[in-house]
């Protein structure tokens, strides 16, 4: 607690002590239990809880106290982080509580003498203002100061709520950006995987076409070789027949002619080679229709549940924000 060094040198130490024992939230003397913040300022635990609840409007809606929260010290604006215990996790300031007990005892003893313990100098001339035992001070400016301080506290609490909402909205914006990047990366990965599957399937089908092409062209090339051999044999027989026609001997010609005719007949019978069927070169069997896949790809869209979720979140957030505005 920040006691001023001049409190002991003050003309009225009781009044200075009272100022040091005023809670900056309720503007009344600290009520037990008194908690000390990490910045060494003190608050009534009830007041600290009120500030904490105001700075964390969504805290109660979580259904449990598993997660903590934060609020700012009303004296120095230092940010106070709380765990799942909330303000009940803050340390009590037993020294201040003992000082309050001593002060109240002193006030009671002075009140018995009909004198305001904190403002003995205020009164009619040299006559002190009478203060009934157990009553608050009846200084003329006290009610106005109390009301003004209450208004200031309300504004400060409202500013804390707005700042908390701004921080939560900024966190939501940052999370939205991070989630959007993650969604983009996931979408790209899925499309890349789909493209890889299509590329793999395309390679497989191309290989099948290439094998069919190799088989057909190999068969046709074999037939070409066979027909060439047949053509070569037929040409040699033609040359032999021409040479036989040029011979002059009758008996020899007859013998050679009979044998040659027999060879030509046998060659013509055995020379019936295999042929290809009509349309053998066609590759229509390897045509693939991708119309249904094209339509399926064009029909790709995000799941309907996602749009419903976004719409529900927008309505929920709008309702919360409108409720918050009315609370302010």
From TrEMBL:
Protein name per the record: Tripartite motif containing 63
GO MF terms held by the record: zinc ion binding
GO cellular component: cytoplasm
Keyword Cytoplasm in record: yes
Gene3D superfamilies attached to this UniProt entry: 1.20.5.170, Zinc/RING finger domain, C3HC4 (zinc finger)
Every COS domain range: 245-303
InterPro entries registered for this protein in UniProt: COS_domain (IPR017903), TRIM/RBCC (IPR050143), Znf-RING_euk (IPR027370), Znf_RING (IPR001841), Znf_RING/FYVE/PHD (IPR013083), Znf_RING_CS (IPR017907)
Coiled-coil stretches: 166-248
UniProt KW Methyltransferase keyword: no
Protein localization: Cytoplasm
Lineage: Eukaryota, Metazoa, Chordata, Craniata, Vertebrata
Protein's organism: Buteo japonicus
Record keywords, A-Z: Coiled coil, Cytoplasm, Metal-binding, Zinc, Zinc-finger
Record field: transmembrane: none
RING-type domain mapped to chain residues: 23-77
């Amino acid at each position: 607690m920040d006691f001023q060094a001049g409190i002991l040198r003050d003309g009225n130490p009781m009044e200075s002590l009272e100022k040091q024992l005023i809670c900056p939230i309720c503007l009344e003397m600290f009520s037990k239990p008194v908690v000390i913040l990490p910045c060494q300022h003190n608050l009534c635990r009830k007041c600290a809880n009120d500030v904490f609840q105001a700075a964390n409007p969504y805290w109660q809606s979580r259904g449990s106290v598993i997660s903590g929260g934060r609020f700012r010290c009303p004296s120095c604006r230092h940010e106070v982080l709380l765990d799942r215990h909330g303000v009940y996790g803050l340390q009590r300031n037993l020294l201040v509580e003992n000082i309050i007990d001593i002060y109240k005892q002193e006030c009671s003893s002075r009140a018995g003498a009909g004198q305001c313990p904190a403002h003995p100098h205020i009164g009619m001339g040299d006559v002190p203002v009478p203060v009934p035992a157990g009553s608050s001070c009846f200084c003329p400016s006290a009610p106005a100061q109390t009301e003004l301080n209450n208004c200031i506290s309300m504004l400060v609490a409202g500013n804390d709520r707005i700042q908390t909402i701004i921080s939560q909205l900024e966190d939501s914006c940052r999370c939205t950006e991070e989630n959007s990047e993650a969604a983009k990366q996931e979408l790209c990965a899925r499309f890349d995987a789909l493209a890889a599957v299509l590329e793999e399937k395309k390679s497989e089908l191309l290989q099948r076409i290439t094998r069919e092409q190799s088989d057909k062209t190999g068969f046709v090339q074999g037939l070409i070789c066979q027909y060439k051999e047949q053509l070569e044999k037929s040409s040699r027989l033609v040359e032999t027949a021409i040479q036989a026609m040029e011979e002059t001997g009758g008996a020899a010609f007859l013998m050679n002619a009979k044998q040659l005719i027999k060879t030509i007949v046998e060659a013509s019978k055995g020379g019936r080679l295999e042929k290809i069927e009509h349309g053998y070169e066609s590759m229509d069997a390897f045509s693939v229709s991708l119309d249904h896949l094209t339509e399926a790809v064009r029909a790709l869209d995000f799941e309907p549940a996602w749009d419903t979720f976004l719409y529900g979140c927008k309505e929920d957030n709008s309702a919360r924000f409108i409720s918050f505005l009315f609370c302010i």
